[in-house]
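chain below, 330 aa
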Amino acid sequence: MYLMHSHLVFCLYFSVPSFAIPFQKRSISEGPAIASNFADPSFLEFNNVFYGFSTTNGKQNVPVATSPSFNTGWTLLKNHDALPTLPPWTTGNIWAPSVIRLSNGNFVLYFSGTSRNDKRKHCIGAATSSNIEGPYAPENESLVCPLDDGGAIDASAFHDPISQTLYLAWKVDGNSLGGGGPCGNADGSHSTPIRIAPLNPSTGTAFIGPASTILDRDDNDGPLIEAPSLAYSAKEKMYLLFFSSNCYSGTLYDTSYATARNVLGPYTKAKQPLLVSGDYGGRLKSPGGAEVSPDASKIVFHGNREAGNAAVREMWVGELSVKGRMSVLT
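prediction:
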C-alpha cells in the first residue's frame, strides 16, 4: 500500500484582460500518492471509490489503483491488468489510458499503443467493459492513427456539460517524425497539435464529426505539447485545457493550462505553467502527464522520482480551486 500524507491545493484566479489564470499555490503534499511507477495517470470516481489507471509498468498493459478518498489511501491492485488482451493493430507499449463512463453505464478505456504498421509511432484505440476495473475488450481497429503526421497519443475523453457532447482530445505526435533531441523536434520543424472530435455518446468508440485543432506548440513550449485534459468551471463559465510542454524525460517538463469560453476555443495559454520542476522546495521533478476532473476540482499527475530521470514516474494528487475575482466576455 502506498499512502499520501496530505494533498496539494491550488488556487486559480481569473484576471483582466486575458483569459490566462494567475494562480496561488497554497499547500503541498509530503510525497506522492503512489510511490512507484504510475506514469501518465488518469482517474475516475465510481460508487464512492476513485480508480486510477496508468501507462504500462512493463508487466501490466494498464495498471489500476484505487482509493476511498482521493487524497489518501491509494492502493495498487496487485497483478491486475485492465487491458489484458491487445487489439491486432498494436504490438503493445500502452501509454496514457483514460476511462469514461457512458450514460448507459458502460465504461470506455482510451489508450495509445505502438502501431504494428510503424513501430516508431503510436495510435489510439478504445476498449469497453461493464466493469470499471475491466477487463476491457478492445476494438479491432484503431480510433485515431495519423501515421503520416507522427501518430497520436494521450487520448482523454470529456463530456461537455454545456452542449452535452462527448469529446475525445488527443495529441498528434509530430515530434516522432524526427528533428533531433531526446524527444524529437528539437529543431521545431514539426507541429504537435491538440485535437478534439465528437464521439458517439452511445458507444464512445466512433466519431460523429470532424476533428478540430484547439492548441499547438510555440517556441515557449519547447519541442512539443501533449497530455491534454479538458475541464469546465461552471462558476466562471470557462473551459480549462491542461497540457504538458517540453520533453517528458527532461527537467523542463511541466503542467500548463489554457482557457477559453468555447470548448472549441480559441484557447489562451497562461503566462506561466501550473507546475514546474523545483516547486515546493524541489520536491516536484518534471511534473506532467496530468488529468483533471471534469469540474476542474481535482488533478492527478506524475513526477520523476529522480531529477532528469523518467525511469520511475510516481503519481501525485491535488485539488484545484478556481476562484474568480473578475471575468470578461470578449
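The first strand starts at residue 8 and ends at 14. The first helix runs from residue 279 to 282.
thats it, cya
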